[in-house]
Amino acid sequence: MQQFPFRAIVSDMDGTLLNTNHIVGDFTVDTLEKVAKKGIDIVMATGRGYTDVASTLSRMKIKNAAMITSNGAQIHDLQGNRLYSNFLPEDIAFEVMQTKFDTSRICLNSYQNNNWFINKDVPMLHKYHQASGFMYEIVDFSKHHGQDTEKVFFIGKNAEDLAELEQELKIRFGQFTSIVYSTPTCLEVMNKNVSKATTLSHLIEQRDYQLADCIAFGDGMNDMEMLSEVGKGCIMQNADPRLFGELPDHERIGSNSNESVASYIRAIFGIS
């Protein structure tokens, strides 16, 4: 039996596996299909919701894959079965939604029961979901609910817009939640101890290998624990600069614009 350096490939999506058009390139699709045929597990680990990720994987001829979504709040298999969830408590989620912020600079979002809610129309967000068609519903969060909340997240026009809000959220909700940036302009709030790393650990409890047998790729602060705890964590050249500072000894690979994850996979797994 052919031996490979890792049993599973775990990848973030935006800024990592997806190209600059926010879709998975043909070279990447071909790469993942070939490595999957060799028996290597494919795991998507992303801040995106299940609907988005399922749409991406539907482009690939892969029989088995797992989807860690909303930064670890859920796991689904390729057939759409939910294997795990860890949602914000309903009352905490609703309180987070009522946090005051500059509505001219920041928009409020939530993922709840695989739906996306937002406080106002933001057309620029459409480009991120053009392949899946996953789209938001505009709601009044003061009259909304906190049920089945995977995450609440705030998108700012600039990174500086979120600094004060981050501090307030940490003071008020830090003991009950996990608060992390998925990009420099997107601040996300999940239930306590939710992360890609903890959920990946939960996923592989049912498998015959360990975190040390996984290779992972990421570009954001929400990837930090995952990249630290697997056997090998690779950082994208286009990553959030803060991630380089936190993980200075981790290998840096190329940019997502060049489908560098696929190139790296081909090299280490011997795929032509």
Automatic annotation (TrEMBL):
Family the UniProt entry places it in: Belongs to the HAD-like hydrolase superfamily. Cof family.
Pfam families: Hydrolase_3
Keyword flag Magnesium: yes
Keyword terms of this UniProt record: Hydrolase, Magnesium, Metal-binding
Keyword Protease: no
Cofactor(s), names only, from the UniProt record: Mg(2+)
Organism per entry: Pasteurella bettyae CCUG 2042
Alphabetical list of CDD domains matching this protein: HAD_Pase (cd07516)
Name assigned to this protein: Cof-like hydrolase
The organism's place on the tree of life at top rank: Bacteria
NCBIfam families referenced in this protein's UniProt entry, alphabetically: Cof-subfamily (TIGR00099), HAD-SF-IIB (TIGR01484)
PROSITE patterns listed in its UniProt record: COF_1 (PS01228), COF_2 (PS01229)
GO terms for MF: magnesium ion binding; phosphatase activity
